[in-house]
Amino acid sequence: MYYNLEAFGRKISQIRKNLGYTQKDISNLSSLTIETLRKIENGKVLPTQITLELLSPILKVDLNQLLLNYRIPNYDEFNKLKNKIECKIENGNYFNLENDLKYMKKILDKQNLNNYAYKLMHQFYYFVEAIILKKIYKDYEKSLSKLIFAMKVMTPKFNQIKYKEFVYCDFEIRILMNIALLFSELESVEKCQEMLLFCLNSINSDEINIKLKILYNISYTFHKMNMHSKALYFANEGIKLCIENNKLNCLAHLYSRKGIAQYFLRDETYITSLRTAINLYNITNQDNFKKLLIKFCKIYKIDTTKQLNRSIDNFQTKLTNISFSLI
User: Fold this and answer.
1) pLDDT averages per 10-residue partition of the chain, 327 residues
2) Domain HTH cro/C1-type, which positions (predicted)?
3) pTM
4) What is the pLDDT of residue 323?
């Protein structure tokens, strides 16, 4: 279910002001942070049911019922395609995205959508265009331009230099993360890392999937900066978050980052981490990423073909439990 969060946020703001409350007043009465209230009123986050129940008696309106008035119709076809594209991105299958983009354009042209839904779809459309430009054509400048277009769809005054001044939804944090990665290619690794750390501090705590991507990219960027202890730290933070939340989608990537950091730190357990990553790639059918890791191992003459040791077998038992809990 998708909602017009911009219009809902404006309504919340109007109700608050009509009651004579400031955001600070609501924060004191509800225990919610002012930053959370800002995101809700700016249409940058879908409030949880608990948040709506906290705010309802304060604002003297049933917000769960009010939210239903802002449902977006005619969104199902686009959402199915979006999920299909996300699956391809997750598995590194970028070369068929152009066909999906053409189909997305047809959906945008034929559907009668409200302005908010139209903007949401266009934002994702520009985001996918940016991925294609970066991953297939290696055109980092154009990719960056598309990401900035994507950001300005919902945040019109966005400026990549003054990026800390804006309020972002979770998907916009993901766009900002990709802008950071392009800065690593076009400007400096240090600027990239600064932006990635901002993304980590700005992402909602319950948005685990994007947070894992950010942790991975921070670890990778520290690797590029030859700061392998920090690369190892953030890889371990990501691994811990995966296991705590029963997430498989980034676990192999994070173990590969851990193993590479350990290798450069001359930690002999690096081989265990790399074999774990390869084993995880097999389990999750992420063949493209497994090939990239094996290619890296061959470059550095790392033998990953031997039998896994007992610690890996023990981890596999834990992994089985994780995979079943996700079904």
Assistant:
1) 90 96 95 93 93 95 93 84 92 89 87 81 96 95 97 94 94 97 95 97 91 96 96 98 92 94 92 93 89 82 57 39 26
2) 12-66
3) 0.85
4) 30
DSSP codes joined into one string, 176-232: HHHHHHHHHHHT-HHHHHHHHHHHHHHS-TT-HHHHHHHHHHHHHHHHHTT-HHHHH
Domain over 204-327 is classified CATH 1.10.510.10:
no
Pairwise CA distance, residues 271 & 120, whole Å: 44
Residues 274/302, Cβ–Cβ less than 8 Å: yes
Please name which of 144, 238, 142 lies closest in space to residue 191, comparing C-alpha atoms.
144
For residue 73, the model assigns a pLDDT of 79
Residue 76 pLDDT? 83
Domain ranges of the chain: 5-68, 73-189, 204-327
Q: Which residues of 177-197 are buried (b: 16+ CB within 10 A; e: fewer)?
A: bbbbbbbbeeeebeebbbbbe
At position 195, the amino acid (one-letter code) is M
Q: What CA–CA distance (Å, rounded) separates 62 from 84? A: 35
